[in-house]
Amino acid sequence: MSKPTRQRRAPDARPGEILEAALALFVEKGFAATRLEDVAARAGLSKAALYLYFDDKQTLFEAVVRQRLTGNFDALSAMVAAHRGPIGPLIGQIFAFIGGRIVDTPIAGIVKLVIGESRAFPEIGRFYLREVIGRGLPLMEQLVVRGIASGEFRRVDPAFAVRSMIGPMMLAMVWRSVLEPIGAAKLDVAAFSAHHADFVVHALKAGEPRP
């Protein structure tokens, strides 16, 4: 009986397979405990073959984040650019989008990794700060500024306002990735996102003009 032949994959597919394997291991084990040989084995490649695509673990981590997180900003940026009219409904759409990513993707596990390991590996924290936080905060600040300029929102500090807006969504990620696995009650992320968006819009809303 002849031995089964190993299925050949197109070289173009291999980077994606490596990223999927790396993502799973980073979320399961963390950055420190993930070894490149384990990533290669899970992707069905040799370690030498992995090095044809990624120079080291840091480069691999950055590629995972770009694929899974920073790509979302293209969708959010398009959403913001296309929106016309009051900003409040758009904020609701954005938080629904973020909530969906928390539920349907490993984003919460990546955030947990960054929070837990940035002291030991500051380069991953700096990368996340630059590529994720550095893009997300200005995008949201732009919305607050637009709402203030139109008179829809009261005058607030946009930078402080956005950090207040994002904080509860970070809590949702930590709750899902850290607290639920050790017994915390399951969080309905979709309902929480909708509630938070409503809370934010009402907090920002300008009062009735005085006579």
Indicate the proportion of strand residues: under 5%
CATH level 3 topology of the largest domain: Tetracycline Repressor, domain 2
The CATH first-level class of the largest domain comes to Mainly Alpha
Shape: elongated
Taking Cα atoms only, what radius of gyration do you get, to the nearest Å? 21 Å
Class per helix and strand makeup: mainly alpha
Low-confidence stretches: 1-10
Please give the alpha-carbon distance between the first and last residues: 92 Å
The total number of structural domains is 2
Number of strands: 0
Written as H for each helix and E for each strand, in order along the chain, the element string is HHHHHHHHH
What's the average pLDDT? Answer: 89
Helical fraction: over 70%
Largest sheet: none
Task: Output the keywords.
mainly alpha; 0% strand; 211 residues; Tetracycline Repressor, domain 2; disordered N terminus
Give an overview of the whole structure:
The protein is mainly alpha-helical and 211 residues long. It folds into two domains: 11-54, Arc Repressor Mutant, subunit A (Orthogonal Bundle); 62-204, Tetracycline Repressor, domain 2, CATH 1.10.357.10. The protein has nine helices and no strands. It has helices at residues 14-29, 36-43, 47-50, 57-82, 88-104, 107-117, 122-150, 158-179, 189-204. Helix 6 crosses helix 8 (158-179). 27% of the residues are buried. The model is unreliable at 1-10 (pLDDT under 50).
Short structural description:
The protein has 211 residues and is mainly α. It is built from nine helices and no strands.
